[in-house]
Amino acid sequence: MSEINISQPQISPIQKASQSRYQQWRLIKDWLAAYGVAIGGLGVIFAIVLIFFYLLYVVFPLFISAEATAFKEYPVPAQAQGKTLLLATEEQNEVAVRFTDQGKAIFFAVATGKVLLTESLTLPEETQITSFAQGTPAKGVVAYGLSNGSMIIAKHEYKITYPNDKRLITPFISYPLGKEPLILDKKEKPLVNIALRLDEEVSTLVAKTADNRIVLISFEKQESLFGDNELERTDAVLDLPASNIKHLLIDKEQRSLYLASEKGRLSFFNIVNKNKPELWQHLNVVNEGEKITALAFLNGDLSLLVGDSSGLLAQWSMVRDAQNRPALQKLRSFKVSDSAVVGINAEQRRKGFMAIDAKGKVGIYHSTAERQLIEEQVSESLPLAVTLSPRANHFLVETTDNKLHVWKVDNEHPDISLKSIWQEVWYESYPKPDYIWQSSSSSNDFEPKMSLTPLVFGTLKAAFYTMLVATPLALMGAIYTAYFMSPAMRLYVKPGIEMMGALPTVILGFLAGLWLAPFFEAHLTGIFALLMIVPLSVMIFAYAWQHLPEHIRHKIPEGWYAAILIPVILLASWLSFVLNAPIEDLFFNGNLQIWLSDSFGISYDQRNSLIVGVAMGVAVIPTIFSIAEDAIFSVPKHLTVGSLALGATPWQTMSRVVLLTASPGIFSAIMIGFGRAVGETMIVLMATGNTPIMDMSVFQGMRTLAANIAVEMPESEVDSTHYRVLFLAALVLFMFTFVFNTLAELIRQNLREKYSSL
Fold this sequence. Notes:
Blueprint: H1 13-59, E1 67-75, E2 84-89, E3 95-100, E4 104-109, E5 115-120, E6 129-134, E7 141-146, E8 150-161, E9 168-174, E10 182-183, E11 191-198, E12 202-209, E13 214-223, E14 229-237, E15 245-250, E16 256-261, E17 265-270, E18 278-284, E19 292-297, E20 303-308, E21 312-320, E22 326-335, E23 341-346, E24 352-357, E25 361-366, E26 371-377, E27 383-388, E28 394-399, E29 403-410, H2 418-422, E30 437-438, E31 449-450, H3 453-484, H4 487-500, H5 505-522, H6 524-546, H7 550-553, H8 561-578, H9 580-587, H10 592-600, H11 609-633, H12 637-645, H13 650-679, H14 682-687, H15 705-712, H16 721-755
Helix pairs in contact: 1-16, 3-11, 3-13, 4-11, 5-6, 5-11, 6-8, 6-9, 11-13, 12-13, 13-16, 15-16
């Protein structure tokens, strides 16, 4: 046999040069693409890490420990003017005042102790000071009880001017009810204990007299015919043995009066009707054998702070009892030391307070967070008087060695702790501990409630109902489209569903809130009927279809059967809503919502989890469907063909070969859809009532982390506690999605390795 020579085509030098340049350019493009992808990936990772550390940077100050540092120490100003009854400072911590037992008000510079002004209160001749009390600390009102049964009321005030662009604070004394003493006791007995509250319209004064009577006097402004303001006086005497009473307190609303004995017996009076005070409660507020050594209101006057001789400080707050009457309930307690608590100063703008024991140990606490923030030994000498500044950033302590100690306090975020964020907290006026998110109020006395637990619960609840709606529909649709549907029909169905993903979520939220929610409320019975009538109609139609003559059935090409189900589903849906009213009349007395409430105590909120599940399901279905459909469609054909060739039915092939092989992609689709549901903002924001409640009912709303951030971030003050807690919520959402997606990726990789051999 002769050899056949096949000659290679000759390539010219020009062609070789052209191919060489092409190969070089191709290598350059490959190199650029490889490095571009690498740089882009690293950039994404860097951006995510940067976001994480920025969130951490904003959140970190919430958990920085508070600090107190000694600032100044000097002799008590004007010691010769008498013993200190009260220390107080103005807001800027530049000027302080010392009220003495000689009726003097001594204003001095906080930084140096230099006396700025000394005011003497005008006392009637031949009268002595027998008692002293402070009104509302924020208003600067004080009162002296006198030996003739009268009371003189004064107010320390500060005028701020800016001569030569420099702040100048000028202190002075004013007299809200006049310079002349007010006669409280008509029997002119000495006032041995007093309390007062002043308001623009009403003022309430209470005193214990030397003969052990409790007198209650109120002054109410009345406008006369000539436009003048006159004070209308009301007198009452409490029917209560007063020999053991050592402490008197009136709340800021002038509705409640508290009388306490040294041994811990507390009496609570309702004084709404000043003519007839009503005793509502008697109780013991200290342990057996202990004594009340300090008593004060927490900011807002809804809670009492009771310090005892054992060094324990307890918070008692007003809670509605079984008869819906306010009653004192012990919420929490703090162990200050082993020595008696001799002084309590509440913050004027937060729910914090300062306590000092008999040995000069100062502790600063926050009631809601249940935290001890600061503990310092101010002096070896015993304390005589103590005050906390209005902004709670300074405190002054006078000790028995005639020294005044000034301390600075750095305590920016006392109301945040792990307990206040994640655990149940017993808030003021609440019947029991609970998880509450309520970050702001119009009142400065408001107790911030910043539990993230109901927000996390709401986030998971919204995602749960979304996935409950979206997952079955998306996966079943993906299976049918990828495996059973005709390729020609798939060309229309798959892009059509994927185009749904391009719908702006704000539009879906708008439609859900303004159209879908009222529609569901009006046709709730029809919605539940639809869940039964549509599947039943499809099964009946399928059964009937199987019994049609073959020449009719074969007119529908294989893979197009889904098209003929469309009118069946539409007709069944229409029938469900037509039957809405008859079913309600027949089974639910004409109204399903009222029937649920009366029969099971289930209330119906128009914007609820059902609306969120449907609306967010529409947004999530395209994502899950597209990824799952691609995973199923990408299963190698030789696996399905081989399974069918071995005698397996199409459904057996689908369930035992295709789904197992595509399981990593299907799992990824579900996880990406879940992540989309967790992070969704606008739909949840517009389709729910945004109520941060912990109720798994499908008829109740929720508030999610993302929606809460969107709602409250524009209203929060930069660097405030509220602002940082919102960033903490963002960090929690970030960490949640990161951890969940990491676990999902590990599971996906495990599934890929497990079924890669198929």
